[in-house]
Amino acid sequence: MASGRGWWTKRQLYAVLAVLPALALSACSSEGVDTDGPATAQESVITSDAVDSTRIEVSETEFAINVPNSRLTPGTYTFVVENSGSVSHDLVILGPGVESQRTSRIESGGSSELTVNLEPGSYTLWCSVGNHRELGMSTEIAVS
User: Fold this and answer.
1) Do the beta carbons of residue 106 and residue 137 sit within 8 Å?
2) What CA–CA distances, in Å, run from 86 to 67, 77, 82, 83?
3) What is the set of domains in the chain, with CATH numbers?
4) Which residue of 52, 58, 67, 126 has the fewest C-beta atoms within 10 A of its own C-beta?
5) pLDDT tens, 53-70?
């Protein structure tokens, strides 16, 4: 039995040694990786210029708030909110340094803008019309 156990140990060692060079080569390869292309939603971070506000296009429907990116850098942002739904909505933002700022009520097909200075932290965006928040019209963004 002892010789069989040693054989398995050597076999396992050979298997590992055979795989390691392939793993090392695949880790060094850049083939198939688009480093010049657009970043995915998980990778991209919207940055804001300290002088001018950056515009963030937000779409509201029944019953969802669609923000193009949930990761931002600190700065001043203008949220341009378009109501693509069939009933009225609004947008409320609450987070560090922002005490429940909101747009006016936006009728179907209309839009409104809200400019806020975002500090590092988590912010909640929601629709305060009726029970829209409870129906799913709420999202979060992170600023870092």
Assistant:
1) no
2) 19, 27, 12, 8
3) 54-143 (2.60.40.420)
4) 52
5) 799 999 999 999 999 999
Which of 42, 67, 47 lies closest to 56 in space, CA to CA? 67
Instruction: Dump pLDDT digits (tens) for 94-143.
Output: 999 998 899 999 999 999 999 999 999 999 999 999 999 999 999 999 99
Q: How far apart are CA 106 and CA 71, in angstroms?
A: 25
Q: Which amino acid is at 52?
A: D
Distances from the Cα of 51 to the Cαs of 46, 75, 76, 79, in angstroms? 15, 9, 8, 16
Structure tokens at 75: 């700065």
Tokens of 82: 């378009």
* Top-confidence residue, 13 or 31: 13
* Count of all residues that appear for the chain in the document: 144
For CA atoms 84, 100, 68, 81, the dihedral sign is positive
Whether 141 and 125 have beta carbons less than 8 Å apart is answered as yes
DSSP summary character for residue 51: S
Give me the residue label for tokens 């839009």: 111
